[in-house]
Each structure stands twice: as C-alpha cells, then as structure tokens.
Design brief:
It contains seven helices and no strands. Helix content is about 75%, strand content about 0%. Helix 3 packs antiparallel against helix 4 and helix 4 runs antiparallel to helix 5. It is globular, with a radius of gyration of 13 Å. By secondary structure, the protein is mainly alpha-helical.
Length: about 100
Amino acid sequence: TCLWYTQREVELSALAHEMLEANKNSPETWCAVGNCFSLQKEHETAIKFFERSVLVDPEFAYGYTLLGHEYSFIDELDDAMNCYRHAVRIDPRHYNAWYPRTLR
C-alpha cells in the first residue's frame, strides 16, 4: 500500500511478482497484485484480486477495506460500504475501514 500511495509502479509490480512466487495462498499477495492494477486505474481487475484475497482468508479485514476503496473508485458506494462494514466486523479497531464510513 505504501508503494501504491507513492505511485511507485515498478517497485510495486516487482513486489507483487516476488510475492506470487513465494506464496499464492497469502491474502497479502493478492492485495499487492490488486494494488498494481488499482494504480493503473484498472479497478475492475483490482476488484477481482482483492476478492481473491478475502477468499484466501475470509478474516482478512484489510482485503475488505481495499475492496471497498476500489468499489468507491467506480462509484459502487453500496458495495463499498458493505466491504467497510465487513472489515469493521472482523476487526473493530481497523481504522482504515472506519474513516470511509463517516463520509456517507
């Protein structure tokens, strides 16, 4: 996510490839891949990878948060809010999912 915020596409892509080689069963791996596509503004593809992250680990609150952000980018606000709610149910202290909920 830090690489996403700093727009470091090459480093993010390299990290995602490295993570895929190391562990395809990690939700963090699929979030890194999703962030690559999000940074390229390919939100529909990013959503697929964030969905995969929560399929790998249904208790991964951050995956639901990133999924919510992607839904927000494409103006699917009901889906976004559902993802944020789900993240907060998993981890009530997950502040990244609380903030977007206050905007509605």
